[in-house]
From TrEMBL:
Cellular component per GO, a single term: nucleus
Main location: mitochondrion
Name the record gives this protein: NAD-dependent protein deacylase
Source organism of the structure: Lactarius akahatsu
Domain Deacetylase sirtuin-type: 1-288
Pfam families linked: SIR2
Active site residues per record: H145
Binding positions (substrate): Y70, R73
Source species taxonomy: Eukaryota, Fungi, Dikarya, Basidiomycota, Agaricomycotina
EC code(s) of this entry: 2.3.1.-
Length: 288
């Protein structure tokens, strides 16, 4: 095992000659946009570990609490703007498609984040491009844990899905997010007043991927991981599977791995490059 390099010039050289690049992103990518992470500082919501709320069992046993958590996260996502790391990744993905990197290079962003900020960054970068320089096809962003503004009916016979950016998503949840820091008695929102399916009236849930559920785009992601020659790991603790397994897989098949994180993360001693620091600074340097 060798120590990972922090040589940015060497990384850029590798990037410029890499054919199939993937980036696997986590909550740290959006931290500078004001979206709380799951673990470490910011990983607590009220007195609860955010991780204990991200399961269907938690939702079934206390839909009021879990909806308040997601209402809080929806409001954060609605108020947030993409940061310099989102923008740099978006620009890089467009350049890859326009073949400025290498004639047959590919780049895909695989994000665990549900805030939609990577897609918004891509839309912002694309809309600033003159029409004649638009890429010939759409750059790929795979949001493997869903989107926090999407809502899913819990009735198995209905299963209606919709994107609902309404703020607040229902009247009863409005204002509950302000109690996050105050430590006052937790409000209980009656189940009947929680978001309901517009088609059948049953209880709706946030359409995100909780523990024990199958992430989205798995066959497509598996193919991309199989052929990746370089994997950028951005702002994730690399503790949640399957995303945590991709860096190891790429390295086992002879590819290179570069980690961009504020601090040390799982498995980062077995990578080729390690850039410690805020990714909103290191990613624009690395991809610029
Ligand atoms: C910065 C920064 C800055 C801060 N700059 N950095 C063993 C093997 C395989 C699987 C399992 C296993 N044991 C258990 C499992 C299953 C389970 C799992 O992984 N459990 C672990 C706890 C061990 N996984 C699942 O259940 C998944 N499904 C599954 O496996 O299905 C089976 C299957 C899959 C594939 C093929 C076949 C079968 C589903 C996982 C769903 C996770 N859902 C959540 C909630 C989503 C909705 C929501 O957002 O609310 O996803 S939980 C949470 O964790 C969220 C995140 O996307 C995910 C990862 O967290 P992330 O992004 O890494 O955040 P943090 O907070 O942990 O880290 C932030 C990092 O940023 C830190 O390192 C900071 O230092 C850094 N940082 N600021 C750079 N400015
Ligand atoms: Zn329904």
């Amino acid at each position: 095992m060798s120590t990972p390099s922090a040589d940015m010039a060497a990384f850029k050289e590798l990037l410029s000659s890499s054919k199939h690049v993937i980036a696997v992103a986590g909550a740290g990518l959006s931290a500078a946009s004001g979206i709380p992470t799951f673990r470490g500082a910011g990983g607590m919501w009220r007195k609860y570990d955010a991780m204990s709320l991200a399961t269907y069992i938690a939702f079934l046993s206390d839909p009021s609490r879990v909806w308040q958590f997601y209402h809080y996260r929806r409001e954060k996502a609605l108020a947030a703007q993409p940061n310099a790391a989102h923008i740099a990744l978006a620009k890089f993905s467009i350049e890859s498609i326009r073949k400025e990197i290498a004639p047959d290079a590919t780049f895909t962003l695989i994000t665990q984040n549900v805030d939609g900020l990577s897609t918004r960054a891509l839309e912002a970068v694309q809309s600033a491009l003159p029409a004649e320089s638009s890429p010939p096809s759409q750059p790929q962003i795979l949001e493997m844990h869903g989107r926090v503004l999407d809502v899913l009916c819990t009735s198995q016979t209905c299963g209606h899905r919709v994107t609902d950016p309404t703020s607040p998503i229902c009247a009863a949840l409005g204002g509950t997010e302000e109690l996050v820091e105050s430590g006052v008695i937790e409000p209980i929102v009656d189940k009947a007043d929680l978001p309901r399916c517009s088609q059948c009236g049953d209880l709706a849930r946030p359409d995100v991927v909780w523990f024990g559920e199958l992430p989205h785009h798995i066959p497509e992601i598996d193919k991309l991981v199989d052929k990746a020659t370089l994997c950028l790991v951005v702002g994730t603790s690399s503790m949640v599977y399957p995303a945590a397994s991709y860096q190891k897989k790429v390295r086992e098949q002879g590819g290179k791995v570069a980690v961009f994180n504020l601090e040390r993360s799982q498995g980062d001693s077995e990578v080729d490059f390690l850039f410690l620091g805020p990714c909103e600074e290191t990613i624009p340097q690395a991809l610029g």
